[in-house]
TrEMBL record:
<dbReference type="GO" id="GO:0061504">
    <property type="term" value="P:cyclic threonylcarbamoyladenosine biosynthetic process"/>
</dbReference>
<feature type="domain" description="THIF-type NAD/FAD binding fold">
    <location>
        <begin position="4"/>
        <end position="225"/>
    </location>
</feature>
<dbReference type="InterPro" id="IPR045886">
    <property type="entry name" value="ThiF/MoeB/HesA"/>
</dbReference>
<dbReference type="GO" id="GO:0016779">
    <property type="term" value="F:nucleotidyltransferase activity"/>
</dbReference>
<dbReference type="InterPro" id="IPR000594">
    <property type="entry name" value="ThiF_NAD_FAD-bd"/>
</dbReference>
<protein>
    <submittedName>
        <fullName>Molybdopterin or thiamine biosynthesis adenylyltransferase</fullName>
    </submittedName>
</protein>
<keyword id="KW-0548">Nucleotidyltransferase</keyword>
<dbReference type="GO" id="GO:0008641">
    <property type="term" value="F:ubiquitin-like modifier activating enzyme activity"/>
</dbReference>
<dbReference type="InterPro" id="IPR035985">
    <property type="entry name" value="Ubiquitin-activating_enz"/>
</dbReference>
<keyword id="KW-0808">Transferase</keyword>
<dbReference type="GO" id="GO:0061503">
    <property type="term" value="F:tRNA threonylcarbamoyladenosine dehydratase"/>
</dbReference>
<dbReference type="Pfam" id="PF00899">
    <property type="entry name" value="ThiF"/>
</dbReference>
Length: 228
């Protein structure tokens, strides 16, 4: 298919069939989530669930791909669906306009091949990790703040977030609020998260499993910390 012609060589025709049959859940449709959803749709992941109960506001305009001056106050997940239906109508995208929580997480996440963390708070990230483990689904985590970001891939029972965010830290503090969020950081971290998703689905390449990629764009530093 001509739409995916530029995928070829990097991704084979047989691998494209795998992507077309895959189902990925993206939790969060803001800074990270907008780019993640767009990249997944453009590369040809066949089914995407976009979960977010929030609406766009004016402060989102500096970095959130799906926000624009005429959709302020509108649902982020529903606007994501509208955008992807324009970008790639071959994709089945489901909009879930709710906040994920302990009572609905298992129901919302089940049936997917991969879960992608595009959240902005630690407590919900750890809930996603727990739910993903119960459902035996791998997840890709990304976080951003200022010039900094991190990415890791977490398979069931890896519990990587427990190392990154020990229980004794304040789970409600948000690094984004302290460091801000320029436009370029979420785009970069989202791209790396999507690369991890594609490698998991295609079962090739070196995953960021058991390790975390830390990025400092201010000093051009890319470091990987491995967990023993």
């Amino acid at each position: 298919m001509k739409r995916y012609a530029r995928n070829m060589e990097a991704i084979t025709a047989d691998e494209m069939k795998i992507l077309e049959k895959s189902k990925v859940c993206v939790v969060g449709c803001g800074g990270l989530g907008g780019y993640i959803i767009e990249l997944l749709a453009r590369i040809g992941v066949g089914s995407i669930t976009a979960i977010d109960g929030d609406v766009f506001d004016e402060t989102n305009l500096n970095r959130q791909l799906f926000s624009h001056s005429k959709n302020i106050g509108k649902s982020k997940s529903e606007e994501a669906k509208k955008r992807i239906e324009l970008v790639n109508p071959l994709i089945n995208i489901e909009s879930v306009n709710v906040m994920i929580n302990e009572s609905n997480s298992l129901f919302l996440l089940k049936g997917h091949d991969i879960i992608v963390d595009a959240l902005d708070n630690i407590k919900t990230r750890k809930l996603i990790q727990s739910s993903a483990a119960k459902l035996n689904i791998p997840m890709v985590h990304g976080a951003i703040g200022g010039f900094y970001g991190q990415v890791t891939t977490i398979f069931p029972n890896d519990n990587t977030l427990d190392y990154l965010y020990p229980n004794d830290i304040k789970l409600d503090r948000g690094i984004e609020k302290r460091l801000g969020n320029p436009s370029f950081t979420p785009a970069l971290i989202a791209s790396i998260e999507v690369a991890e998703v594609i490698k998991i689905l295609l079962r090739r390449g070196d995953l960021l499993r058991g390790k975390v990629l830390f990025i400092d764009l201010l000093e051009n530093s890319f470091d990987i910390l491995e967990f023993e």
